[in-house]
Amino acid sequence: MAADLTAVTLIEKHRPTLDQALEAIRTRAYWSPHPEHPKAYGESAPGDGQAAFEALRGKRLGLDQPGTDGWVGDEVSPYGPELGVEYPHPDVDVLLPAMRAAMPSWRDAGPEVRAMVCLEILSRINARTHEFAHAVMHTSGQAFMMAFQAGGPHAQDRGLEAVAYAYVEQVRTPDAADWSKPQGKRDPINLSKQFTAVPRGISLLIGCNTFPTWNGYPGLFASLATGNAVLVKPHPRAVLPLALTVAVAREVLAEAGFDPNLVALATERSGEGLAKTLAVRPEIKIIDYTGSTAFGDWLEANARQAQVYTEKAGVNTVVIDSTDDYKGMLGNLAFSLSLYSGQMCTTPQNLLIPREGIGTDAGHKSYDEVVTDLAGAVQGLLGDDARANALLGAIVNPQVRERIESAGGIGEVALASRTVQNPEFPEATVRTPVIVKLDGAKPDDEAAYLSECFGPVSFAVAMDSASDAVELLRRTVREKGAMTVGAYTTSSEVEQQVEQACLEECAQLSLNLTGGVYVNQTAAFSDFHGSGGNPAANSALCDGAFVANRFRTVEVRRPA
Amino acid sequence: MAADLTAVTLIEKHRPTLDQALEAIRTRAYWSPHPEHPKAYGESAPGDGQAAFEALRGKRLGLDQPGTDGWVGDEVSPYGPELGVEYPHPDVDVLLPAMRAAMPSWRDAGPEVRAMVCLEILSRINARTHEFAHAVMHTSGQAFMMAFQAGGPHAQDRGLEAVAYAYVEQVRTPDAADWSKPQGKRDPINLSKQFTAVPRGISLLIGCNTFPTWNGYPGLFASLATGNAVLVKPHPRAVLPLALTVAVAREVLAEAGFDPNLVALATERSGEGLAKTLAVRPEIKIIDYTGSTAFGDWLEANARQAQVYTEKAGVNTVVIDSTDDYKGMLGNLAFSLSLYSGQMCTTPQNLLIPREGIGTDAGHKSYDEVVTDLAGAVQGLLGDDARANALLGAIVNPQVRERIESAGGIGEVALASRTVQNPEFPEATVRTPVIVKLDGAKPDDEAAYLSECFGPVSFAVAMDSASDAVELLRRTVREKGAMTVGAYTTSSEVEQQVEQACLEECAQLSLNLTGGVYVNQTAAFSDFHGSGGNPAANSALCDGAFVANRFRTVEVRRPA
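YS: structure for the whole thing
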């Protein structure tokens, strides 16, 4: 190891953070070592970060990887500009063996040193949060503040959380044990046993377009911390944030005396379908994937040599039965529907509202009134263009725009989408959400509300009763999956029904959120993202199951 | 709950045992609460146990299960007698919904009460160990002492170990948390969060012929302790031990106030293929399987709605390089090859011996001498018929007998199998092991030593060098899988090579065993059975990965 990154200095620097993370995942109280306010990063950080991002544009991002057979990259910011960054394209027959060769010494380093190296990587990424924020903004289309927070500290939190789970899982079994079995009057039988956490192989991270770091870091760090090498295959439209991540990881690994090929980037040529090729390579033993259900299902069915962790599509529901804070409910929902133009796997889609209306602290509100008032709340929230731009960000791809434009064909539009001008980035497509009215009793409407409509389109579905709403919630989770469920009710009976449905169908429930926490946001160390128990995802961020099968324990026993 | 099985009394009775088990899996020191000596069960236990077993024969074993549409059972003891026990045949369209209905109150009982109920089941099974020993003996063909120990206390240990892992995994997340996020000068955001371990659904245990309880209890108890219902589908030739287990479980569940349908038996009609039907039912969310690679692979590929834990076939290797206790090595290996006529997934098959011979404390021994001396050690061990019967047990099925009989066609026979008479059970097929000489340099011999030959047939493979032996070990584990690896060496260099091979190919290694511990035996709470990281098994008994995905954690959060 280099003088400044010995095991001793790394442990001195990062062990307290790891211990706090371990405590946080035990108590699930609020905790984060990564400030979420841009100002916390120092006065010069915003300018430095932007300059660092600008300096990357139009250049090759060299990673000094073995087996580079070309340069690729054609990212265009959803805000307009071409990024012009080129990345190494891998000859996988050269790169994969180099990655395998890097693993034995990483395995021998043990769980604590691996955790410390991961924390050093995260800490260097954290120091460059402003730069990463621009990279996330100009690949995902998130507004700057969201790109900063979700792509920066919140993603780093999820990475650290995965390291903590990985560490604790590996040290549940001691390094060594003396085993002495009594034999009555004879001498006991004594064995000396050694236990080693061994990696499964090369772990493949298949990144997504919308949250390259937030959805990528848990798998990346869980696999690296458990001794595996990690090959990062970013979404072709969101390479830069993960390429920077790989660069930092390689830099830290080398400085700490390990082979940098433990982490490598696999950028693909346009239309190459590299994920599909890599996913069935025998060297690939773990896959982390966020994206479409179709490809997630394909991975689960075909990448049989690997442990496959998928987050796919779902249909998120909010049951609106009653509230004692009508204004708070509307404001909270309006924010949830608007944030990043609903381009989150956790954004509510189906708002189930009794057709007879709901009881509120502002009196009884009919179905129509609720829908109209919610539409009004969204319009109010997004009435100012500067605020709208800051919340909405840009539409990430043409398919989302098409969904907005064809929403009128699905049903009666209660809130039409408005085009917002972005003065800084005039080419950006910025659109406010659409709300469409549907009827839960009309069979014709079912196809719409039982399909994921990714983007800022939600359905206000009129239901015969709260019980019917719970039944539809149950069916939706069971058949289509859900990353989130919300409910508003003042009735303990309805609350119990919704809770039972979520416990039985395995979905994460937010009840009566009216303040500054939203159904589509989860906090690392405390909230689980997804349940891993319904069709939307086969794993949760983060729990024991997410890390326990990324390594195996090999025992060597001998007479003592 | 009944008066004597309230949560309070159960906790008072069993919590100390659970705590000791939790400590044992942390330290992996020797521990067991289940005595392995038959005398420990009281003076009348042997007679009572045998009488209880005899009383079962020729009768119906009623379990009072819903949806029983007939009675089946045609078990014949490998020792000769027909058991004549009939078991309920399930109408699964009635039984499965009844099992699902039983789950919510079991979920609501929480991890500790579930663990306590599981420990009560195990403790009642333990009290009937003599009866179970006869049931295991007359279905598996194990000799009585082995059926007693492996089918009784050792199986109970593995069940308890799974309960301990399941318990600790579920309580890693607290039941509730207060989450308070600072907001600078504003009031913090306060959320109250509840976390519930929820079951996946119905868990299917597909039992095996040779170790119905030992291989069945880990999955059964891991699933039950994590809130799932468990449907037990025994091997048609080894129903009785698991049927008795189900009976005890149902009795305890009912007494503790739970629905007995949480555990049910699914016995199949001859040739029905019920496992295949059940495995793809949507209600089945977990499968535990021990058996052939072909069906294990089929389950992994087709039971896509379920978490599938498999133990399949492998090829176990012992590298014989050198020893400082030649006699001890020969005796230890002879015992390993003989125990239960090699009908264990952990029995060594390939003995890799340098053709130039090995160094020993008794001087240099040529390849031929080693093979001859090992054959002699087996003959010595089994020379006395009474001792041979006590070690070998009976051949479990005609396929094993055929393998013994055709072993001479594979290569030069260094030790021929001898037929042993069993005076108590003259119909039993009792056979001593065969050792066949093969050459690792002859391509023609490869097909033999690279296939599993289940039963008392092992291959003494002549190798060019110890390094070649390690390479063949490596290749065998990678391509065919291995439950166990053994090695004898006094060379630190060879030892290191073997260790590296096992760490990299993920196999459990026993080094230089010469005393009363054998490569084919593992002790619960300390040794891992299988690694879960090579083709022989996709899971290990027992670790976090074996339990962590049998439940999911559902979070409900609301403003505090």
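YS: worth flagging: The longest helix of chain A spans residues 103-127.
IM: good catch. Also The radius of gyration of chain A is 25 Å.
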